[in-house]
Amino acid sequence: MSKKNKTDKEVGTQKDFLFSKRNYQIMAVGILFIAIGFILMAGGGSDNPEVFNEAIYNFQRIRLAPTLVLIGFAIEVYAILYKDKK
Question: What is the pTM of this model?
Answer without folding.
Answer: 0.75
